[in-house]
């Protein structure tokens, strides 16, 4: 049982590290890639003004209080594998996501690919338009069904309403 515990806990730390890396770096890189105005340094400044507070407050300051509480655990296994490892991962994530990554993006980041960004925006707009047109079509179909049944009033249906059915007046 002891050997199994020592295999599982570093595995959990690796899974946690993968998730934290996305939280600390992935959102910042995506925002940088979608920013089109100015030079790389300008884009980095704009990216960090948008994502910096979210990364700091949303990830770092929500993880740290929970991790610090593990310091007072009675089990040495929890203190070593969960407190120390997660604390170090969070501190390294903060340093990498808020200090090192912006410097790397400012000097070595890719140039803005305005055409690709434009195509992605158009694709999103087209999908939104299709969703809206499908909703309008569904409403027309529903109103036609109501007229065919001769009903003028619809009562809400679903489990939250006690599965009431349409009532006709």
From TrEMBL:
GO terms, molecular function: cholesterol binding
Transmembrane helix found in the keyword field: yes
GO BP terms, alphabetized: cholesterol homeostasis; intestinal cholesterol absorption; sterol transport
Keywords: Membrane, Transmembrane, Transmembrane helix
Positions of transmembrane segments: 50-73, 85-108
Gene Ontology, cellular component aspect: plasma membrane
Chain segments carrying region Disordered: 128-169
Record field: compositional bias (Basic and acidic residues): 128-145
The name this protein goes by in its record: Uncharacterized protein
Organismal lineage: Eukaryota, Metazoa, Chordata, Tunicata, Appendicularia
């Amino acid at each position: 049982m002891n050997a199994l515990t020592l295999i599982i806990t570093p595995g959990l730390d690796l899974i946690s590290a993968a998730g934290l890396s996305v939280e600390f770096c992935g959102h910042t890189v995506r925002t940088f890639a979608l920013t089109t105005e100015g030079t790389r340094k300008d884009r980095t400044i704009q990216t960090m003004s948008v994502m910096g507070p979210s990364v700091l407050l949303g990830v770092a300051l929500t993880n740290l209080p929970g991790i610090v509480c593990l310091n007072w655990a009675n089990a040495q296994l929890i203190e070593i594998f969960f407190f120390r490892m997660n604390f170090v991962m969070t501190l390294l994530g903060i340093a990498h996501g808020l200090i090192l990554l912006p410097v790397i993006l400012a000097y070595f980041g890719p140039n803005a690919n305005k055409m690709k960004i434009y195509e992605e925006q158009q694709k999103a707009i087209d999908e939104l338009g299709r969703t809206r047109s499908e909703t309008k079509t569904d409403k027309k179909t529903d109103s036609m069904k109501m007229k065919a049944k001769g009903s003028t009033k619809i009562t809400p249906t679903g489990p939250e309403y006690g599965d009431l059915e349409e009532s006709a007046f």
